[in-house]
Amino acid sequence: MGFFDKLKKKVTTQTDSVTEKFKEGLTKTRNSFVGQMNELFAQYRNVDEEFFEELEDILISADTGVSTVMELIDELKHEAKLRNIKQSKELAPVISEKLAEKLDKTGEDTSLNIQQNDMTVILFVGVNGVGKTTTIGKMAHSFKQEGKKVVMAAGDTFRAGAIEQLDVWGERVGVDVVKQQAGSDPAAVMYDAIHSARSKKADVLLCDTAGRLQNKVNLMKELEKVKRVISREIPNAPHEVLLVLDATTGQNAMNQAKTFQEATDVSGIALTKLDGTAKGGIVLAVRNELDIPVKLVGLGEGVDDMQPFDAEHFVYGLFKELVEENSENENR
Amino acid sequence: MAFEGLAERLQATFDKMKGRGKVSEADVKEMMREVRLALLEADVNFKVVKKFVNDVKERAVGQEVMKSLTPGQQVIKVVNEELTALMGGEQTKIATAQKSPTVVMMAGLQGAGKTTTVAKIANHLRKHNNRKPLLAAADIYRPAAIDQLETLGKQLNMPVYSLGDQASPVDIAKGAVEQAKEEHCDYVLIDTAGRLHIDENLMGELQEVKQAVQPDEILLVVDAMTGQDAVNVAESFNEQLGITGAVLTKLDGDTRGGAALSVRQVTGVPIKFAGVGEKIDELDEFHPERMASRILGMGDVLSLIEKAQTNVDDERAKELEKKMRSAEMTFDDFLEQLEQVRNMGPLDDLLQMMPGANKKAMKNIQVDESQIGRVEAIVRSMTKHEKDNPSVMNASRKRRIAKGSGTTIQDVNRLLKQFEDMKKMMKQMTSGQKGKKKGKGGFQLPFM
Ligand SMILES: Nc1nc2c(ncn2[C@@H]2O[C@H](COP(=O)(O)OP(=O)(O)OP(=O)(O)O)[C@@H](O)[C@H]2O)c(=O)[nH]1
Ligand SMILES: Nc1nc2c(ncn2[C@@H]2O[C@H](COP(=O)(O)OP(=O)(O)O)[C@@H](O)[C@H]2O)c(=O)[nH]1
Ligand SMILES: [Mg+2]
Ligand SMILES: [Mg+2]
């Protein structure tokens, strides 16, 4: 069975709403990306310098990151030579194969690290306005639907209205919020939250933090302290440190990932706002260069607009039309 | 992976070009390849980059190299000029209506910084223009968005108009304008909910608000970290709303901010403000030429030279520079340096643009601009003897200084450390420069 067939099979056998939702959210991405790809194959029939230049533009326009794109193009050139590929259409499967490879490098498990017999603590970090609080609200909802007892910690004590924002989410999904006054020490909030969640016998504690730009040394130190307090109270916690990245962000996402990883040992990424027209190609670069797996995807502002990340779905979404066309060819 | 300055990228090309009198086509082509990459890494949209690179190529080929410049510098000069022109040369102020109140409406994606910017602009208008603004809470969707604006209003001690989250944004906007008239407020700043440019319903809602209150200014708020999609967002908001200006936020980060160029290019509207922090007073007027050099990266020495020459008294600059190089710099020099440099642009950026800047050494030097006030206070609390001989600093002196400046001993220690680091860095720069001839501006990059 060819690569595309496998991909298609995997995706189409998962007929649950996950696939649908994901596909729906990615329609915009897919349309424009695949549209461009098809145009590329129609316009540049031969695999030549011009073709590669155009491909480079398409990938760059998806925020894939200059160095990742260069690397990819080099590999493709090499591959084309090796397999003696002259027609651009023949290169299409190689392109998506390479992309999937980059997204799913080690093939490791990208599910969340949930404790079976103890409270799971998840810390959310990221720059301002990326969607940390919203993602927490969505996650609280999804854990609750699984029958888990959830508590949220209002660790953003800085931004105006941040505590109230989490409070509204708490009411919306029916989950307790542990909070202190605006301006109080976020590490103290976490300390409180852990003990309060423990006494409530919570299964999951979701910790919000204030957005901070990664180049603010003091604020990154503050975040380190927040994490330290959590680890001191519960060894091995936080069990997940999720870096929230906005899909609209360009190359700076790489700096963000790097610095937050250094400060808090990020265990995964939640990629938000993929319901817009931003292509989210930054995922490729982050995965490729820093090896932090993407674990969740945000596809809107509602409680249900969140999905686990799946590399194959992602690539499938980008190349749907191409995939279908090609698997027909493979079957012949 | 990290941003390489254009300077570093161009090093090899520059070396080859040394000593030629004319800029050849091949040289330009090679350089422009690097310029292209630098711009793409800065998130300038690839189409905008393509056009830009072609324009520069056309202009640069065959140019006589100016006496004072090397061919490499000559090309960079053209690049810089074109970029600044694209950024829109002049600085543009916020609109004022003939008839009060002036109505300003914000628009933008989720989390861009609209609400914060409303508060910042209100503060700016009162502080610098003696205005009396009214804030209008028309984000009825995001949880606690109204609370956020009300909290900011309280901090500012300014009125906030709200009808809760059950009223329509149109009614809120209209009501706010009415109230402004009654209470003689001369600006109404309307905060709106973040929305995707492809969300037809919500974009339609903004059109209705526009229809209802006819804003004198519609500001698109754009996160400086935005990637390639900035063109789609800006184009789309502009087509549907007819924006009159833009605000670039989060420029206190370490992003190059290429989105600024993309937004300018596709909308043609001026960028009017730059957000440089989370606090209410962290708003700057937008300086196109500073942005141009920021996007280009730290290799933009020409503009640094130009800035240094116009902003700093020449003689004094040379003297200072000499002191810096010989690592004799005292705290008074440091303070003066800070003040002069402050007029030129974001400090971190400037430090990075410094000739021969050693990145490793730079890492330890964190200049947070909001802390300059504190630094000043600390230095001013030192005695002359201490300023000239930082080595005499001991615990009791530090305690006195901390007390006198209303800071902590940690603050004093931090500054002392920064000062030492800076001196060390200057020394490293100097040793790295050995054997190279000195240029006229004094500031000198290794590749020149
Ligand atoms: N560092 C920094 N943070 C900023 C700046 N401007 C806004 N922010 C932060 O960015 C986040 C989002 O800002 P908001 O003002 O809430 O953005 P908004 O566009 O109103 O967001 P929504 O209403 O959720 O669409 C907040 O955490 C702000 O504190 C800036 O210039 N620098
Ligand atoms: N369209 C869209 N908007 C989102 C998504 N996630 C968050 N947002 C919005 O982005 C804005 C900032 O989110 P917030 O959770 O306050 O960010 P925080 O500052 O990181 O906590 C809010 O207006 C959210 O409603 C998403 O996946 N898609
Ligand atoms: Mg938040
Ligand atoms: Mg807002």
From TrEMBL, chain B:
Its EC number is 3.6.5.4. One of its GO terms (cellular component) is signal recognition particle. SUPFAM superfamilies: P-loop containing nucleoside triphosphate hydrolases, Signal peptide-binding domain. It is found in: Cytoplasm. Residues 270-283 form the SRP54-type proteins GTP-binding domain. One of its GO terms (molecular function) is GTP binding. GO terms for biological process: SRP-dependent cotranslational protein targeting to membrane. GTP binds at residues 108-115, 191-195, 249-252. Keywords: Cytoplasm, GTP-binding, Hydrolase, Nucleotide-binding, Ribonucleoprotein, RNA-binding, Signal recognition particle. Part of the signal recognition particle protein translocation system, which is composed of SRP and FtsY. Involved in targeting and insertion of nascent membrane proteins into the cytoplasmic membrane. Binds to the hydrophobic signal sequence of the ribosome-nascent chain (RNC) as it emerges from the ribosomes. The SRP-RNC complex is then targeted to the cytoplasmic membrane where it interacts with the SRP receptor FtsY. Interaction with FtsY leads to the transfer of the RNC complex to the Sec translocase for insertion into the membrane, the hydrolysis of GTP by both Ffh and FtsY, and the dissociation of the SRP-FtsY complex into the individual components. Belongs to the GTP-binding SRP family. SRP54 subfamily. This is Signal recognition particle protein. It comes from Salibacterium salarium. The gene is ffh.
